[in-house]
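Data availability (excerpt). The following record was deposited with the supplementary files.
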Amino acid sequence: MSERRWDKPGDYTFTETLSPGQWMWEFLRRNRAYREDWVWFQEAWQTLERRYGKPPNREFSRWEADPLAWRQVMDDDCGECRIDQDSVLIECWMGAKWGFYKFPLSPDTDAPVIGEQLTWREMDWPSVEVDATCTDYLGEAVHKLALGFDLELPLRPQLETAKRYLQARLSRLRRSGKWVPRTIESQRGRWRLMLSLLDAQAAGVDDTTVRSWLEPRLASGEDFDAFCAEATALVNGGYRELSRIPEPGKPVDK
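Predicted structure:
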């Protein structure tokens, strides 16, 4: 990772042009477990290349017969990876664990080209059945609502009606000013501060110093501890949720 001074905002101006997929990478590359996994993977891969060569001269049949080329899995949550006797190839294991396709990237990679160097696996969209046992879904969130469907009737016209209703509701919320949809533009400043926070923690900067620098830069009323918890959550898997944010310029109501 490029050397950046955590308390120098100018060192983070590169974030002005990051796409959602690149923001995901910025949080993942700061995950200590990912960095450790990558060191292990890189050492294993280089060992395999010394033993069996590189493309186009790789002895792939011998490569696949080497236990080092495989990683045992405890469950079937490996996406499209080929499972052979409870094991998957190490490159596929890395991708399934951390949420991407293609070859694992070094944490030192800056601004990878999404779709070429890095391709994120799609996330399933959430679907919640709201009934008498699920009373906390709506809460105080104005951007959440529950709709009813009659399963004795055709679903297609009901879904079309629901879509029109949701689009109208979204327009009303925007006009009211009570809710602002989460976009790259609205979150960029907060995420940039989170990168500074995470880099300071990785550098071993004491909490008092980080707090005194960061608190004046937070939005009015934002809690420092909650902000730190959100940054930690993004590093520890929450980065994948950013894939739901539309690319700049694309509507959120499609």
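Summary of structural features: The mean pLDDT is 89.
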